[in-house]
Write a structure and sequence with these properties.
single chain; mainly alpha; Rhopdopsin 7-helix transmembrane proteins; Regulator of G-protein Signalling 4, domain 2; 2 domains; transmembrane
């Protein structure tokens, strides 16, 4: 059949749908990015690929395949959609378990024997064989009602078969199943840890629930309107199918498009990497605390907040000395620049005199003399590393405890919690990846 005016809504969706494959490809290829990896993108990509296929092929069938057998629409509607939703829920369940385990690692004092036993049981949901078994079991239950379709209906032209009474009856069953699965999505979202959820996953799943419920309401209203008005023009628009494709776009919008957009807008990829501590060995080590503080002070606004507090309560020299080291490392590490920094921070009665500087003064003067005697044109890499590390330790011991109790320190407390949760979550994700490859 030729394309007619009533095909316009589905034709628009068919054209718009072609933005989905490249976005999904970016989502999959950049799976290790900080904005994506905690969403388990390689797992999420499976249901999202099924929704992408549905969002492109369903409009194409409605517009260009009116004479094709309705078997294609049957598979897309009653097989692909349940499969996509089941895989989607399996991934959400994994996220819930991962976040709960991470919270237990972060806050062991808040755990109870019952909670630990429950997590020991739930951790089996992270094993791929268990996931495959559960997905197959649920899919059999969901798809069984659709297997009683009359085979003759499947070979009718798509424009006829998809409006047959039996097809419409099966659609109502599918709507009920989708509502039940969406309720499960909502319930699981309530169990996503507040402590670990730093990227709004709970909100994404709840927005998905609200968005798809709205789509289902529109599908039901469109069917009621078409049956009540008995207008062939309204029927030819195929509004229920139109809104079902919009539902697929909704899923992809919240779980692929928005994360990719956040990734593109993120500055995290351009920030200098700061070494993390081996938290799986000692999660509260000084190395980790120094790494978190150093990363926090890299931001100019945050540094100014700490400096403001230090000016009110303590000496500012250690912070300014740390800033001077950062400026030195960002420039040319010449011997003359190193001499100026030593004179500024590591000499008796210098401009930025600190207890740390007094203790390391002699050692750094000896190092400079050795470089001068050797006619070295520049300092070796990380020449001031020891000085930097000692300054960070001093700030952590003398400044940070009071800073975290002050209103200016609220952001640092939140930042510290974020960094620690990401560190623990990375450990748990590494364990899951080991399970996948074993």
């Amino acid at each position: 059949m030729a394309v007619v005016a009533s095909d316009a809504p589905m034709l628009v969706l068919f054209i718009v749908g072609w933005y989905l494959p490249p976005v999904l490809w970016i989502y999959y290829r950049r799976a290790r990015h900080i904005c994506l990896k905690y969403r388990l993108p390689r797992r999420t990509a499976v249901p999202m690929l099924l929704f992408t296929v549905y969002a492109i092929v369903m409009p194409a069938t409605s517009v260009f395949g009116k004479d094709w057998p309705s078997f294609g629409s049957y598979v897309l509607t009653f097989i692909v959609i349940p499969m996509a939703l089941v895989f989607f829920i399996i991934t959400e369940t994994m996220i819930v378990v991962l976040f709960q385990i991470t919270e237990l690692l972060m806050l062991p004092q808040s755990s109870t024997p019952r909670k630990v036993r429950r997590l020991i049981l739930y951790r089996w949901l992270l094993h791929p064989p268990i996931q495959i078994f559960l997905a197959a079991l649920v899919l059999v239950g969901l798809v069984t009602p659709f297997l009683r379709v009359d085979a003759k209906t499947l070979f009718l032209p798509d424009a006829v078969g998809t409006v047959s009474p039996q097809y419409q009856e099966l659609t109502l069953i599918l709507i009920v199943e989708v509502v039940c699965l969406l309720l499960l999505v909502l319930i699981l979202s309530w169990y996503i840890s507040h402590v670990v959820d730093n990227f709004g996953l709970r909100r994404s799943y709840q927005q998905t629930f609200h968005g798809i419920i709205l789509v289902l309401v529109l599908i039901v209203l469109a069917r009621v309107a078409a049956d009540g008005v008995r207008d062939d023009t309204l029927r030819s628009l195929r509004l229920p199918s139109f809104f079902s494709v919009v539902g697929a776009h909704t899923m992809l919008y919240f779980h692929v498009f928005l994360p990719v957009r956040a990734m593109r807008a993120s500055r995290d990829a351009t920030l200098r990497r700061v070494q993390r501590s081996p938290s799986r060995i000692h999660p509260h080590s000084m190395l980790e605390k120094k790494a978190i503080l150093e990363k926090f002070l890299m931001d100019d606004d945050r540094f100014r907040n700490v400096l403001t507090f230090a000016r009110m309560e303590y000496t500012t020299e250690p912070l300014l000395a740390l800033q001077a080291i950062t400026a030195f490392e960002a420039g040319e590490p010449s011997l003359s620049a190193a001499s100026r920094l030593v004179a500024q921070c590591l000499s008796p009665r210098c401009e930025l005199e600190t207890d740390v500087g007094k203790r390391l003064s002699l050692a750094y003067h000896d190092k400079l003399d050795e470089l001068r005697n050797a006619d070295a044109p520049r300092t070796p890499p990380q020449f001031f590393h020891a000085f930097r590390q000692e300054l960070l330790v001093w700030i952590l011991h003398e400044l940070v405890p009071a800073f975290t109790e002050h209103p200016l320190g609220v952001e640092y407390v939140a930042f510290m919690r974020l960094e620690k949760s990401m560190d623990r979550l990375n450990v748990v994700l590494a364990c899951v990846e080991d399970l996948d490859t074993s």
